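Protein modeling request. Please complete all fields; requests missing the sequence field cannot be processed.
Requester role: graduate student
Desired output: 3D structure, C-alpha cell encoding
Chains: 1
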Amino acid sequence: MLLTALVLAASLTACLSEDDDSTLPPPPTPSVDLAIAVSLARPSVDLDEETARRLVAGDVTSWVELGGDDQPLRLLHAEVDGVGGERAETADAALDEVVGDPSTVALVPADRVRPTVDLARIDGHDPLRDDGYPIAADGERDQQPSASVMIGGDVMLGRRVGDALAAQGDLAAAWAGVGDLLAAADATFINLESTLSTDGPPQQGTDSFGADPGVLDGLRSTGVDVVGLANNHLGDYGTEPMLTTFRLLREAGFATVGAGEGLAAAREPVIVDAAGISVGFYATDSIGETPAAAENTPGTNRIDAPPRTGPRIDGAALERAAADISDLAGQVDLTVVVPHWGTQYTNVPEQSQHEMARAFTDAGADVVVGGHPHWVQGWEQHGEATVVHSIGNLVFDMDFMRETQEGVLVEIVATAEQVLDVRPLPYVIDEAFTPRPVDGERAASILELARQASGPPYDAGLR
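Delivered output (463 residues):
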C-alpha cells in the first residue's frame, strides 16, 4: 500500500513538473540589425558609431549633428525595442513618414526596409551588405536572411568590341572592371545583344551583331546565371544562327529567357535559387527586328508597342504577359521582369513604358528593369514594386556620345518576404569598351540624368 502511494505521488509530481514551466528560462529576445532610414531627398548619411548610438538612444535632436542643416530631427521607431523616438505602428508606417517628411529618421529592423528610403552607413558599413555593421536592437522576430540579385544592361560582344577582345587575346577582358561585382551577387542577369553565330546573311547591315562563342567563358567567370534574349539583335543573322545561339548558351549552362524556338519557349520564365530565395525572371521585347516567336517559329516574346512596333500597345499580348507574370509570382519569392522597350538616346520613358510597367507590377512583378534606350532612364514606384525604365549599355561600342558610355548595374536585395533595396551602381565604359565603376561627381551625374525623369520618391534623389 505504501509503495503504491509513493508511486502515485511520484507520478503526480512528474505531471505537475511537466505542466509547470515557470522554472524554465524565457526564450531569448531576437536581435536584429537596426537600420537608420533617411529620406532620399537628403545627402547620403555616414555616421561614426558614437553618433549613431546617440541617435538610436534618442539623444540627437538636430540634423546639424548628422552633418545636415540646423533643423529639428524627428525620430521614429517600429518593430524594435530599447531605442529612442516615437513608436510607429509598423515599419512600413515609419518608412512612409520618412518618405513624406525629410526631417524624419526611422529606426527599423534591417529586414523591413524598403527601396523608397536611403540607409545611413555607420563608419562606412551598410546594414544590408556588411557583416561589420555595428548597431543591433531587440526585435519582434528573428532577422530574415536576404539575397542579392544583380541586373546588368545591354551587352554587345561583336563588332568593335569583339575586335578589341581579339586584339587583347582575352575574350573575357570586357569584365575586368565589373566582373567582381557581378560574381559577388547570389544571382546575376544580363541582356545579350549578340548572336553566337554569323552563319547567315546580316539582317541589319553594320548594326548586325555577332560574337565569338568563346565570350561565354567570360560570362561564366563573372557569375552570370541568366541571359536575357528578348531584344532586337538576337535575329541579326537569321533563323539558324538564332537557334545556334539558344543551343550554345544552354550547353554552356546558362538559363535563357525572353526568346525561344517557339512562342511557348519564348514565354517561359526562368527560376533560380539565390541563397535560398527563389527568383523568377520574365522578359519581353517591344522593339522588333528580331522576329516575334510564333507557335512553331523562333523569336522573341513580343508585345508590340510604340514607338517601334505599333501605334498602340497590343492589348492581347500584354494580357498574356500579365497572366504569365501572375503565374510566376505565385511560384517564387522575387519576381523580376526585364522588358526591351522605349526610344533610344533619351532619359525620358515613353508613355507606353509607363503603361506596360503598370500592367507588369499589377500582375505581381516586384522589380521591372528595362533596356534598349542605351541611356539611363527614370525610376518610379508602384506601391511596393520598383520600376527602372532603362539602365543603359553595359558593354557596347557606342562611343559617339557620353550618355551611351554610361550606365548602372541594379542590385536588388530581398528576403523571401519583401524587397529591401534596389540600388543603382554607376559605371563608365572606357576606350577598350570595358565598364568600370565610378563614384564622386561622375557617378552623381549619371544618377542625376535618371533622377530628372523619375517619379516620386526617386525624383528627390537616387543613391
